[in-house]
Amino acid sequence: MSQKIKDVNFAPHWIELSKLSPHPRIQQAFRLKYAEAIKRNFKPRVLGPINVVPNSTMDGHYWVWDGQHRLWVLKALFGSNQTALCWVYSDLEEKELAELQRLFNKRKSWNAIDLFRMAVISEDETALEITKILKASSLKPGMHGGDSGISAVAALQSTYKRLGPIDFSRMIVMLKAAWGDDLDAYTTVILSGAAHFVGKYNGLADLGSLSERLMKFGTPGKFLGHARTHASSGGMTTSRAAAELMTNLYNKGRTPPNRLA
Fold first, then answer.
1. Is 232 among the domain residues?
2. pTM
3. Looking at residue 50, which CATH number applies to its domain?
4. Where are the alpha helices (DSSP H) in 28-179?
């Protein structure tokens, strides 16, 4: 469940650009090519105001929580002494600001990692539960591009929604037991394939046994290679092929009634 936002107070102010800085947490990753495109096609009347909150660490300065690319363009074109129209928001906790950012940016494309980070900061119930389950296995979701977390956050969310918290947790424990901290084990293909396996054979398969067989099979990279080959030859998605490979590995050497159908 998303954080409910109280009545929001904001007012327009003209603020010198030198007093504006991107918010350290409530912003997506800066995209230089995107900013340069805005600069090339600069139109003052359609640029729009910059959304800011007071910077509690520097009196008279402000954090930009929506509009860092516009800020970069204005500084590049006119210098830091120029002023810009800003909407100054007040009396917002950081989690409320993160939720407001998510609502604002449904109108433009954010990458999945930045959206998930905003969901965590705004105390979204699903995002917090996913983070908690991963932490129990000494894992973490990606919060910034290039960090050491699981970057397939969209797959984490979709598999959590499909399985629910209990079976999602069992799936993560299974992959962790098989391949440890190797981030290749938590790609969209493997997560989706594992979710299909767990969802289909819930209560029928020994996930500990599957973990052992996956580990003996080889690295997650090797498994992904075989899944792609199986998908190509079988005319199916790579995720479905990954699920079938898991089933085949599980069934190897087993006889009815221990084989999975």
1. yes
2. 0.67
3. 3.90.1530.10
4. 32-40, 44-47, 68-78, 94-104, 112-121, 125-136, 153-179
